[in-house]
From TrEMBL:
This is DNA-directed RNA polymerases I, II, and III subunit RPABC5. It is found in: Nucleus. SUPFAM superfamilies: RNA polymerase subunit RPB10. The keyword Zinc applies. The lineage of its organism: Eukaryota, Fungi, Dikarya, Basidiomycota, Agaricomycotina. One of its GO terms (molecular function) is DNA binding. Keywords: DNA-directed RNA polymerase, Metal-binding, Transcription, Zinc. GO terms for biological process: transcription by RNA polymerase I; transcription by RNA polymerase II; tRNA transcription by RNA polymerase III. Its main location: nucleus. Belongs to the archaeal Rpo10/eukaryotic RPB10 RNA polymerase subunit family. The keyword Zinc applies. InterPro entries: RNA_pol_su_RPB10, RNA_pol_suN_Zn-BS, RPABC5/Rpb10.
Length: 86
């Protein structure tokens, strides 16, 4: 389940926060829902280009959004006082 603030509810009953663009900045295609699938394909040993082909990311602008995304949420949470107390 995905929350409006980009949190994902996992089976372990806690929220995992992600900062992933919901849409491609250039064409507007929804790509935020593909991130977890992309990471699973990479973990399975699939090449980046082949993984994006399997996810039907054909436009180079959408491929750029997924390929160059850097997940900074863990570093940003260090500045959240509530996250530091845990």
């Amino acid at each position: 389940m995905v929350c409006a603030n980009h949190g994902v509810f996992t089976r372990e009953t806690h929220w995992v926060y992600q900062i992933i663009p919901v849409r491609c900045f250039s064409c507007g295609k929804v790509i935020g829902n593909l991130w977890d699938s992309y990471l699973e394909l990479l973990a399975a040993g699939v090449d980046e280009g082949e993984a994006m082909d399997k996810l039907q990311l054909k436009r180079y602008c959408c491929r750029r959004m997924v390929l160059t995304h850097v997940d900074l949420i863990e570093k940003l949470l260090m500045y959240n006082p509530l996250a530091r107390e845990r």
